[in-house]
Amino acid sequence: xxxxxxxxxxxxxxxxxxxxxxxxxxxxxxxxxxxxxxxxxxxxxxxxxxxxxxxxxxxxxxxxxxxxxxxxxxxxxxxxxxxxxxxxxxxxxxxxxxxxxxxx
Length: 104
Prior knowledge:
The protein has 2 helices and 5 strands; from the N terminus they run βαββββα. The protein is of the alpha+beta class. It has one domain: Alpha-D-Glucose-1,6-Bisphosphate, Chain A, domain 4 (2-Layer Sandwich). Helix 1 (14-28) packs across helix 2 (85-103). It comes from Brevibacterium salitolerans.
């Protein structure tokens, strides 16, 4: 299964960014795993007309006083592999980062 990783740095602290990410994931997605100490969150997006959904593994790492978010996006486990999976995964990663920027 194809996976894509996107990263972005935030000026806010890692704890604040993780809390915002947690709110974003809980509001719109199914949370599969949450580890606040390690700042790791795994969630699944809903299926749509053009997608079977995605599984997003988010890691928030402190970088000095700021934070770096790394999102690894894969297709849903039971979904068939498609030619455009990489493009869809990147688009979902950007969509999650945009929601996170708005929440922080």
